[in-house]
Amino acid sequence: MKIGYQGVPGSYSETALQEYFKDYKEEKIEAIGYSDFQEVIDDLENNELEVIVIPVENSTTGLIARTVDLLRYRPIIAIAENYQSIQHTLWGLPDSSIEDITEVYSHPEALSQCTTFFESHPAVTAKAYEDTAKAAEYISENGKINQAALASHRAGELYGLKALKKSVQTESLNTTRFYIMKHAETVQLEGDILSLYVETKHESGALAKFLQVFNLFDCNMESLNARPISGKPFKYGFFMEVDISQMTSPFELLWQTLEQVSEYVRLLGRFDSAIREK
User: Fold this and answer.
1) Against a cut of 0.85, is the pTM above it?
2) What is the CATH number of the domain that holds 21?
3) Where is the Prephenate dehydratase domain (predicted)?
4) Same domain as 182, residue 153
5) For 127-139, how does the pLDDT look when each residue is reduced to its tens digit (9 = 90+)?
6) HEC profile for 201-213?
């Protein structure tokens, strides 16, 4: 089974992949790292991959827009979720100290999860990099004593770096949520959580009418996030997650009703809650 993720060995996405598939024994797993999320999703859509693992939400910074925005119009779907505790370590060269550091490299999401550190170290500049583990690799190869990376414990060890400060993240319970996704044509969906994206009709009260459907079907709204629609300035689409565990009507009837009261709606996933399972 070919499974894609964004990053290199030691990235948090790779860790989520390993955690979710640790007991999988049906066939050999081949984990394939990509430089960006667009390529990962493209290869799943084109059936070059069977599964992908991508981050969609963080407990500190919220929705990860750079990934979920890519899902709006794609024939791929989430079949499960996975939660990973994200503990960022500041990694430098073996002979460096935290006093030497003036530049810290990491993925933009990781940098935004460590704002308190940068506020308390005003002389240190945050440098956006394509991936947390890739940033650790860069520090190792570049060999500059004033540079460091924010990355996982595994990434720092993989690239022979020295831990200058552990748990740099602002929130101690910093957690990232990942979707496990497949091509929509290859799965039979089940589960109590629906993930969907909707663009409402251009009429008064359109969003309220759409949300009222969930009340009528005894569904509970778990989250709602607005995102700009590309090519339509100041028009917004909405990412939603809904708990349908108390619904007694057929799912098909719910979906038909949602289609009737929206301009566009796509099912992004249906799965059981990983938190509830625990």
Assistant:
1) yes
2) 3.40.190.10
3) 2-183
4) no
5) 999 999 999 999 9
6) CCCCCHHHHHHHH
